[in-house]
Amino acid sequence: MSLDLPSAPVAKDANSQAEWRHAVRRALLGWRSALDAATHQHLSHRVQAHFSEFLENRSGATVGFYWPIQNEVDLRPVMARHLEVGGKAALPVVPGRDQPMVFHDWTPQTKMVPGFARIPEPQGTEAVAVHVLLAPLVGFDGAGYRLGYGGGFFDRTLATLKRRPLVVGIGFEATRLGNIMPHQYDVPVDVLITDCGIQTVSDQALPVEDKTDQSSPPCHLST
Asked: Are β-strands 132-136 and 139-141 bridged in parallel, bridged antiparallel, or unpaired?
């Protein structure tokens, strides 16, 4: 399946870039929603496998993840296995528009209720601090800047945390862009995980003794 994206704006003003990002977001979401079931499952399994690999050395971490919407990769099976080896998982609760997210403890048995934008949220569990925060990628670039849904929830949440977690972007390699033209207040992720592998973007993701390039080899989706 081909992915036809709008050309980058000639003008460098903020309005032109915002319009371009909006058009690209719409095109990427359209591509993702149009994935046939077999292709989506194949790519999702590859993302899940790389994410499982990423968690192998973080078995005790509390991971803040997301409830899958709009054909995102479903990470619940990986998180269930993470719980089995002693880790913890948390899902966001959104108090309201323009409010930062608060992460609450989650297990497969947790009661879920419709929350902000009707996205399921945990009910009756405690708020927890997360060590690893997963950010869904509508699109992204190699510098770790992500194109999200436009609500600013992740950047807003990161700005309020006393201690910054390790931020991991999760998505499909086909949505990698040369440059998403980030806003000045956008915060890049530390790690990118796609169906092509794990790419370390920030030194925060590396052990002190290992600051070498950890990027996976480039990979391209057949169309």
From this structure: unpaired
